[in-house]
Amino acid sequence: MEARNPSKWAGEPYEKNPINPEGLTCRSEYGLSVRSKSESIIASQLERYNIPFRYEALLQLEDQIYYPDFTILNPQDNQVIYWEHFGMVDDPEYARQMDNKLAEYRKRGILQGKNLIATYETRAHPLSAQNVRRIIKAFLLPDSNQVA
């Protein structure tokens, strides 16, 4: 596979999720419009750590179309990693849809710990910036001892 320039990749045009654009009501620190406060936290932390990403970029897997929350080009090895945030796992229908999506990803080789980061929250346990930073340092910044 051809090596990609992470900053160039991040700035290239890509096909975005066309569904419900009026739902992009929250903003990251650098001004990216996203759908939720939690996605804003994730985007802001990716921006702070200079991790190249695309928000809700088209992902076609055989006959299925998905728009993962974040498609990341890992600056350490130029591998694509998907980040899905599941923000209402205490809702039974939402949790069922989440399980189906993760099963479809697994069938197609998108696996947690390999090329998928998944975060979860409930009303009682919201996502925190501290948790997002910990995940970024663990999965995207192997030399995290040098990162403040």
Summary tags:
Trna Endonuclease, Chain: A, domain 1; four-stranded mixed β-sheet; two-stranded antiparallel ribbon
Describe, in plain words, how this protein is organized in 3D.
By secondary structure, the protein is α+β, with helices and mostly antiparallel strands. It has one domain: Trna Endonuclease, Chain: A, domain 1, CATH 3.40.1350. Helices cover 30% and strands 20% of the residues. It contains four helices and eight strands, in the order αββαβββββαβα. It is globular and about 40 Å long. 22% of the residues are buried. The model has no long low-confidence stretch (mean pLDDT 91).
Please write out the topology.
Layout: H1 6-11, E1 26-27, E2 33-34, H2 37-48, E3 53-55, E4 59-61, E5 64-66, E6 70-73, E7 80-86, H3 92-107, E8 116-120, H4 129-139
Parallel strand pairs: 7-8
Antiparallel strand pairs: 1-2, 3-6, 4-5, 6-7
Helix pairs in contact: 2-4
Percent of residues in beta strands?
15-25%
Q: How is the largest sheet built, in terms of strand order? A: 3-6-7-8
The CATH topology corresponds to Trna Endonuclease, Chain: A, domain 1
For the sheet with most strands, the description reads:
4 strands, mixed
Distinct helical segment count: 4
Q: Give me the secondary-structure category.
A: alpha+beta
* Straight-line N-to-C gap: 32 Å
What level of helicity do the residues show?
Answer: 25-40%
CATH class: Alpha Beta
- Large-scale geometry: globular
Radius of gyration: 15 Å
Unreliable stretches: none
Strands, total number? 8
Q: What is the count of structural domains? A: 1
